[in-house]
Specification:
Blueprint lengths: L1 H24 L5 H9 L2 H11 L3 H20 L7 H11 L3 E5 L15 E5 L19 H8 L6 H7 L9 E2 L4 H4 L10 E2 L16 E5 L16 H16 L7 E5 L2 H12 L8 E4 L8 E7 L15 H8 L2 E9 L14 E4 L16
Parallel strand pairs: 1-2, 3-4, 5-9, 5-10, 6-7, 6-8, 8-9
Length: 366
Amino acid sequence: MVNHDHQRLNQIMLSLRQVQYECVAEQKCHNQMLQIMRNWRCPDQIEQWVAQDATLDQALIRACRRLVRQFLMKRANEKSPSGLTYNQLVKALDSRYTCMEDFCRHIVDPLGRDAETLALDALPQQLGIGLRMWILDRRDEVYRLSKQFHLDVSLFERLIHNGADHVTLLQQRRMHPKISRLIKPYYPQLRDHSSTERYPEIRGINARSYFMTHFHFEDDEGESHSHLNTFEANFVSALCAHLVSCGYEESQITVLSPYLGQVRLLKKRIQRDPTTQQIAVTAVDNFQGEENDIIVISLVRSNRARQMGFLAVENRINVALTRARHGIFIVGNAVFPSAALDVSQLQLCHIGKLSRPSIFVLLITC
């Protein structure tokens, strides 16, 4: 028995060390995550516990608890550069109970061989596998297959539609009530926990939820298969700088867009300002399951043909609207998201004709 525990302990330690090395070498990791992993001394502490505790059993239990707190909660997502190592680590834990949050593709890899009980937690209307954002041509074979086999339906929705036992939670503890009302068309029975009403007021802006509308057309695609809107990118970067100047930490702000082309443009614009370089910018699809105090969304689409593209997908709008705790600010042409977003629930601000010096004349309170 002691021998078996010692082998499992060694497996965990080796996996942890390998993850540390990979994370430090992986430049695409967020700086915050790199800092956590660089300062982590879990393997050393496991060895210390082995020396101090009376049995390897106790050391293993304590090591696994720390592992769950400091590793699994930080690394168990699809963006991990060390997915293979993560799977090996889960198997080494030999856990009988598994709880999985915001899964949408499959649950085979994260399950250990000894798993007996599985609890799944996700939005009923979340994004499925879908298509990669650069595959937009309806003639594409991948697009045809995804529609034919309903790959745009998440695993959670698939289970519910096929009669799997499930319970719907009717109380939310993330969003301020002025934000949660945006998703009442999706979840009419949703209630707000009393703690959400005690969130602090937004610094520097006189409302928690704004739709900043304009009529500037999106850029010509050129050789890109994605879409981008330079006007929105410039405005969003200025908005982020304003929020930081009013006292928000960069880590409290996340910028989202449904298009990878716009994500790349936003990163370039935001990183020009040294005060906003650490603000996270990512695609809506990649932020599923995450949250932050302030969410800024660039919708991009604005064209003469009134083509909505990704904005017509209700699940994508649903995910975008449910990420913010304290404040949400949407930048786009108000005509376009009307099919999937009730603009009447937002403060409306027309920014299309504002000059740069007066860009926040309707918003600034500090």
